[in-house]
Amino acid sequence: MGMNFRGASGAWLELGDLPGLFDGNPLLVREKIEKFSLPFGDVEFRQIVLPDIYLVYGDMRIRDRYLEMEAPGFRDIVELHFILSGKGVITNHYSRKPLVVAPNWQNMFYIPLFSGKAEYDPNVPFRFFEIHFTKEKFLTLVQDCGPSLQSFCDHIIAGKNIQLADMGVPTNAAMMQCINGMLNCPYQGGLKLLYMQSKCVELLVLQAEAYDQYLKNNTKSALKSDYDRERIHFVRDYLIANAVAPPSLSELAKLSGLNEFKLKKGFREVFNDSIINYVNEYKLQQAREQLLSNVPIKHVAEELGYSSIQYFSKMFKKKFGVSPGLFSRDAQD
Length: 333
What we know:
Blueprint: E1 3-6, E2 13-15, E3 30-38, E4 41-50, E5 53-62, E6 66-70, E7 77-85, E8 88-92, E9 97-101, E10 105-110, E11 115-120, E12 126-134, H1 135-141, H2 147-158, E13 162-163, E14 169-170, H3 173-183, H4 189-217, H5 226-241, H6 249-256, H7 260-271, H8 275-292, H9 297-303, H10 309-320, H11 324-332
Helix pairs in contact: 3-4, 5-7
Domain HTH araC/xylS-type: 233-330
Organism: Chitinophaga oryzae
GO molecular function, one term: DNA-binding transcription factor activity
């Protein structure tokens, strides 16, 4: 796709360019991994190209707090954007509309012109996942998909910058499972193409559905102030830090200063998930990462607070469709 960056050093650097992106190349799936150690930080891009669809996973360890960015050759594309980790603000000079960067948030964009600046928290790795559809492909896929996407499509047809949600929408567990599936696709050749195409469409559906649900939930919001929302984010961070032995709902209410009703409803509004399911999903994703790093199953189960290996295995298989033992052997192979 190609994006130019400039940090405190003042030199422009072009990253992420994959020549002939939408050139009709007959190859089914093309992939490219680039790693850079640059004045403003260390960057890794993994790019995957399908017919009319481009995917990129980025892992950026930024040392400079401020970066300038521009995309002089930006193509006519629609972007599904997912923040996996990191904090900051990105501003497009053309739209003059800031995008708040926060972990586990997602949005959808049509940006025919981009030149802007970004402010990142240098203490937190910035990881993201994007799917880019050609404009024609996207408009074909979302025909008659309801009023929420119709306004979005009207802006695309008019060639105007648009983002689906002003401040983004929470990423849910189903989306993360879909993203992980694409990043760890087990197939090759034509089956890989079919799998990746289906997952891209699935993620588009999940994103549109989450946006509709978010609008519905926030019609009568339980959270009446920015302070209430800050308290919900505090609860999420506290849960992650204490996921091995999570506190009870009443304990969380006391810690956050919110009553239990506002806590439960507000958490679902912000993160599109219940408190208990959010913790369970987080623990299983942590378990998966540890197994990929060849950590023994017994150690994973004990470290994450599962009552027994049998119970851990049952929950892991329910989530990922394979037992931890088979998953570990596949990862080693």
